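Continuing from the previous page...

OK, I double-checked the sequence for Phosphoribosylamine--glycine ligase against my notes and this is the correct one:
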Amino acid sequence: MKVLIVGGGGREHAIAYSVSKSEKVNEIYVAPGNAGIAKTPKVVECANIGVMEFERLVSYAKEKEIDLTIIGMDDPLVGGIVDEFEKAGLRVFGPRKNAAILEGSKAFSKDLMKKYNIPTAGYENFDNADEAIKYLETAKFPIVLKADGLALGKGVLICNTKEEALDGVKEIMLDKKFGDSGNTMVIEEFMTGREVSVLSYVDGKTIKIMTSAQDHKRAKDNDEGLNTGGMGTFSPSPFYTDEVDEFCKKYIYQATVDAMKAEGREFKGIIFFGLMLTSDGPKVLEYNARFGDPEAQVVLPRMKNDIIDVIEACIDGTLDKINLEFEDNAAVCVVLASDGYPVSYEKGFEIKGLENFDGKDGYYVFHAASKMDNGKIVTNGGRVLGVTAKGNTLLEARANAYEATKWIDFENKYMRNDIGKAIEEA
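Thanks. Re-ran it with the corrected sequence; updated structure tokens here:
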């Protein structure tokens, strides 16, 4: 098979790595890819095509005689890339536009959960800033403001006071900090508890749950600083117990798939459940319609199945025949970022030490933002690399991952030093 992967970050590198292990695949193409993805086994070419250039991507897939395209990113999914590929008679993995709305509109997903009694935080939707401000006059604090649309994982504000919330409404709805994503806004009750990420494969009717993970969104240690796309993650989460799993299977996972089908929005692809384990039981924080980043970097290396078998079963509606299996171990990913991320940072610095990962079993370096410059691999964004390591236990995996971060160096390298610290409390 020839496989095309659409995207160019750490998640897509993890997908490319998994695809490269399949005996069914002999050539991998990536658009646009990055310098690390280009060096992945079986990757033939990284094409300089943007993820929203649907016509060019369809033409490229036809030209290269691609057998299967995997869409990694949220923007093209929400924009309807799967519909365009299907119209052209091409085999593609990911939800259609009418199903990707599960991530594309927080207002839609909250209304869906309310309608089908899927546990989530209390909320109200607003498309008018004055109405939102009026609502805040009698609201309980802390409170959460969410831009309705996609915002690179950063469109969520936790406001401890009314003043902060009023500033937040201005930021999202009036100043349009997140662009048109802030035309509608969700105001949600603040939930407390442990956050857990659970990825799943879905074929429209059947859902198969992957191993759990836990992300670290804030830029700085002790969960301080601004929200980011994710500064590191670990898998499995010791807080995701059998009891939690049983509850979620009964009231959240299948219920979501059935709800989407009932709405005429059959979902085929990946559903990422962002859960909050509250004192009242697990509740849905958010849905994503694709692999998490950096969750994919700790979940996919632990998956025993051939990823192509699972993806094809999702497309063909035969997922019920797949027995999804994961290694009985753990993995931790620490993101190496450019100092100053997510606000302002310099790029273009040479990345040294990548060769230290060659031939080291259980150690991975997934490139999120790198490019070739005069024969050297240099930094090309905020989140640069995801250093992932496995271990027999979470503590061992954490120690291995932090040891591996020392093997790499670039100017203005920055990371959190407490990824997976919660493991010690488990």
